[in-house]
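User: I'm new to structure prediction. If I give you an amino acid sequence, what do you actually give back? Let's try with this one:
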Amino acid sequence: MASDYEIGRVVAVDTAQVTVELNRDLKALTRSTYEGTLEVGRINSYVIIPVGARRIVAMVTRVLLTEESELKADKTMVTLPSSRRLMKATMIGTIDEGRFRQGINLFPVLDSPVLITTKKDLDAIFGKSSEQDGASSDEPGFCIPIGRSAVFQDYDIKIDPDAFFGKHAAIIGSTGSGKSCTIATIIQSIIHQASVKQTRFIILDTNGEYRSAFQKQNAEGAWADADVAFKALYIPTDPAEKEKLAIPYWFMDSEDFVRLFRASPGVQRPVLLNALSSARDSEEGAENWLHVRENIIKECNRILGLCSGTETKDAKSIRQLCDGFLDYIAEQAIDQQLSLLSGHYPIITATGIKTTLEGIRDVAREGIRNEGQQYEAYTAIDVNKRRRIEESIKPLLGALSRLPENSTALSTASADCPRFFSKSEFRYRYLEHAMTRDEASSSRARDNCSTMLMRIYRLLEDSRFEFMFGPTCSEWPSVTHSLATFMRDILGAGYLSEAGLTGTDACSEGQLPFYDRQRGGSTRSNVVIIDLSLLASEVLENVTALIGRLIHEFLQRLSDPVSGVGRGEYPVVLILEEAQNYIREGRRTEEDSISKLVFERIAREGRKYGLGLVVASQRPSELSKTVLSQCNSFIVHRLQNPEDLRYFREIVPGIYGQLLDQLPALAPRSALVLGECVQAPALVDIREASPVPKSKNPKFYRSWTQEEKQPDFEAVCERWEGRQPVCPVPASQPPITPENDGGAE
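Assistant: Good question. You get back a string of structure tokens that encode the predicted 3D arrangement of the chain. For your 745 residues, that looks like this:
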């Protein structure tokens, strides 16, 4: 039987490829066997090289004709040239005991026979033999069909969902090559599996094209699931939409605020973090007593540091510190907190703090000349003054440095805690306090913070950012379980009746759409589509980073026993459409964007907590190297840009180098599938999505040959300007279908 299937012999071997000389009696590139006539040497087909009891599988990448005389070193004879037919193939795996496994741990020797694949071999390569064993939910294997083999049309190409999503995947291809349809096909195929009861796919849709892949529009303009199993939730960024995206600002951590407000590291960042910490500690507008305690300790230490100086300006600085802090504790809003502080530290009273600061100020003023005039002259802090200041301040500092009797009270919020705070209090009070304290030490904080303040005021007053900061002229309410409700909504978890959400009297409908959905009894969703197409470009990185970080940190906290689940037992798939727009590999002189840092962390750590990434991009050369290098599976459509091709070759394992030569010539919806997600590397005809994303190519010529259709310029522009309410689609407008949407990319 071996002679029936033998097509040549190995004439060269390296670490990844073999060179095969085809048999001279093989007159045509076919071989007749009892299974029928089989093709020989077709690009992307497979050949078998027996090595003992195992069979090496190699993928054909090149077939060439050369002249034998060119290969001879004997120059003493004159011979007529004769042709040799050579074939190059990349070794991709081994069949052992009827099972195919990727990877090579043994190599053929020269003159090993090379066989064409039998049906039994193909069944092992494409996983049909493993189907007979039966897969479990713990070990699903290669069970999700995504298309058919372009070479062996009788075989479906299936992926392992645990390998594909658990170890991250990248879907790469030029515009119009079929990326969106591939993503939609994979999700639809998974949801349609009989054993699948629930999924958690979150799509960051920067082009607004995935809604039509999971929902359909009726004649009245209302949207509903295209298939009862999809259970899709669509969240738009259009401010005119009732279900619009809202991400409250208090969910951001300190780094989010620093990046959004572009706070420089010198003075602006400390001021901003100080104000954030104070705002998050606030209770009904009054500053928390723990923060007052921290401020007193900090000011005492600064005074001690200055009294060790030998210059006259140190005495002036001490006096200014005392004056500034006396003004601070004189505020009415601090009285309650000072009383609470005295309850935990009985020896500390507002009067005692005031007397101490006044005494230190008087010591610093001793010997001053021309007091109150333009040119005041202070005397330096000598040993006697230093001793008196230390004797006054150390009892106060020592008392506050000890834990109070109720040490559990020391639970002050950090600048990263996602706790509600008033944006107006933050803007007009806590920022002012933070800058005032720095001004007392002559840091000219207000001048240094002027550019940051301008950005803060602009963002808070810009209607484009109401989805994050709420209405420009009012505040968002402080509601019960705001963070938990948002996480339920964004993860498609559905409503929990026992949550005890705030009623409409305190949080009216329309203020927080995600809260309305949960309060209205929303059902669980398999797919959540966040349409970011109308989001202001300057905050795209901040918003995508915030969504990614919240999901990642939530899944990290499932390790806590109170979660009732467990680490990695609540898997989520995050799909990053057009990822190069917000996880771009920056230049050396540029600071990394906040979204790049967040998704690089997810790429490194997300697998441990059950967060999988699917990165879709038409410009892989612009993507973060860290994110792309962490992907273990690739679906590669047509790539034509030389820079993208070169970059992608550097990312994937070198054994695939020859396979990538065909990428510029791939047809739409055809793709190379590589990596751990698939049994063997294969060229695949991706299945048609049903329904398809809204990613059609424009029909220019059809438009030119039909009667002209004029858009309603006034209606479009009025809504653009935010002056037109949402209106239903006219009944005469047909619903969107695959036929009138144009199909795949």
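You can read the tokens as a compact description of the fold. Here is one thing that stands out. Residues 407-411, 725-736 have pLDDT under 50 and may be disordered.
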